[in-house]
Design goal:
The two termini are 18 Å apart. The protein contains three helices and two strands, in the order E-H-H-E-H. By secondary structure, the chain is mostly helical. 67% of the residues lie in helices and 6% in strands. The model has no long low-confidence stretch (mean pLDDT 83).
Length: 99
Amino acid sequence: MTMHHFPEQVVLRNFLANLSEELRHLASAALEIEDRVGDVIAEGLAGGERLSSSLQGLDHLVQTANELSVFIGALSQSADESTTIPVSGHIRAIGLRSL
């Protein structure tokens, strides 16, 4: 079992920039799925009608993640480089270690 060492504090500007980038990656992945689901519907494959409503949900997910990415990216640019936030106690709640 590997022990993860988390920083006690991180620079707010960097944290927001990283969060923005992570949201951008999520939006990109969701867009790929949305495109594939759209292809299935366009080809008229079985289940396409049920997938159509899922496509609307995926579209909303893509739009929301993109907009949040832009907003948080702008926030990161306005944060000063000396402001830090505590993270070590909170980061352990994230189960996905790649984050």
